[in-house]
Amino acid sequence: MKTTPLWPDTAKMPKFARLGKDLKVDVIVIGGGITGITAAYLLRKAGASVALLERGRLVSGETAHTTAHLTYVTDTRLSDLVQRFGHNHAQATWDAGLAAVRQIHQIVDDEQIDCEFRWVPGYLHALPRKGREEAPSLQEDARLAGELGFDAIYIDEVPLMRVPGVAFADQAKFNPAKYLRGLLRVLRKEGCHVFEKSEASSIEIDPPTVQANDHTVRGKYIVIATHVPLQGATNTASAALFQTKLASYNTYAIGANIQPDILPDASFWDTGSPYFYLRIDRYRDHDYAILGGADHKTGQARDPQKHYERVEKRLRQIFPKITIDHWWSGQVVETNDGLPYIGEIVPRQFIATGFSGNGMTFGTLGAMMACDAFAGRRNPWSSLFDVHRKTLFGGTWNYLKENKDYPYYMLKQSLEKPGANSLRAVARGEGKVILLDGKKMAAYRDPQGKVSVKSAVCPHMGCIVRWNGVEKTWDCPCHGSRFMATGEVMAGPAEAPLSDPKEGLFAV
């Protein structure tokens, strides 16, 4: 049995040289985990020159110690988020996570990275023997999720766990080592400057400068993508004050082969505090389970072995016959209000931290927001996750109005999966956005069975229309344009109908 994380055994990382000369680039990224590598990728794809500095080996820090759940469901229960911050802030937090998961999926597709990415359901479930008493709170979470636009339903019996819970669609999982290996290969091909064993020994901001290996890297912007932010160009007092907003916790994981069975390819987490979180991976000749949990504040466990034993005991309760081959611990950073800190801590110095149990998701989001910040673009979540925020109480923030609808929906919908990829998925009298020949189409089947296919792109400003099943119309969520089921304009601001593909009518 190995006392190291599973992922490094599954993918060998490419090697990069130490920084050995002075360099001048647009952006300096410090940290070679998911946040730093993704930020370097997005910035390079946007045309910026980038230097990525990692003090050790790439993908050797906390990113390697993850269990790699990709979820927009936060550690803080949705009902608690709503009560604490209001509906708008809660919706924005989950939307941010969903956009990040879809960003990962888009990168996987764009770069054809074989990293076992799968869309799977995720289940929040009651603790063993507490199903009946926890059912009302789970029902409330499902109701709130649906109210805020997320695909979630309450179920009386979660698969495998046999207790009540909430089933969330649009969750995912992947192999983070294979994914980041793919990104690093792209960075090498794209001419990005990537350096290992190059620890940032000092950081200045006027101009943005990083010292490493007795060499100087100068840039226009710095992204600090370390697990806990380096002090950087902030003064000692303000850095110490910021650190008081963060708390580190150890978490434990066990990986084991389990007997092949009819098991859901899914993710699970319970309502405990701390909670257990499980992923199941199904392969051709075996199934594999990773269970994590038994968290405690870093440095406050007298006997860490007992925490591994708690995880193993719970895993054997779920799967009595297992063969454990890996066990390891990781660290998560919690914030004082449950939301991550992502943004500029001083001008031209960007940080991202406090991801709690959503490191893969919020790490990717941090990279997306860093790219926007460097480019001077407005990001829908910059205020929500502001590093200098005092409080989110009051409930006066209008999420959609604050972001003027269009930027928010364009970001969300550009990454949105179509409902199907076949006209056969469209029932009589119904419409559905489907993917045909790589393009999103608005398909409608009339009561007689004739199918009309139009572009799903609103001609006004490029948003993706949605099917209104009550009115039998295509509605644009960005600026309110409406179209008949067969694409004709009903209401502006759009002036042109939904456009025709090569063939507009099908009898399928």
CATH top level of the largest domain?
Alpha Beta
Distance separating the two termini: 56 Å
Radius of gyration: 24 Å
Domain count: the total is 3
Provide the residue-averaged pLDDT: 88
Residues in β-strands, percent: 25-35%
Name given to the CATH homologous superfamily of the largest domain? FAD/NAD(P)-binding domain
Oligomeric description of these chains: single chain
Percent of residues in helices:
25-40%
Low confidence ranges: 503-508
**Count of alpha/pi helices:** 10
Count of distinct strands:
27
Question: Which architecture of the largest domain per CATH?
Answer: 3-Layer(bba) Sandwich
Shape, per Cα inertia axes: globular
Question: How does the major sheet shape up?
Answer: 9 strands, mixed
CATH fold name of the largest domain: FAD/NAD(P)-binding domain
Q: What structural class do you assign from the helix and strand content? A: alpha+beta
Domain Rieske: 408-498
Keywords: 2Fe-2S, Disulfide bond, Iron, Iron-sulfur, Metal-binding
GO cellular component, one term: membrane
GO molecular function: 2 iron, 2 sulfur cluster binding; metal ion binding
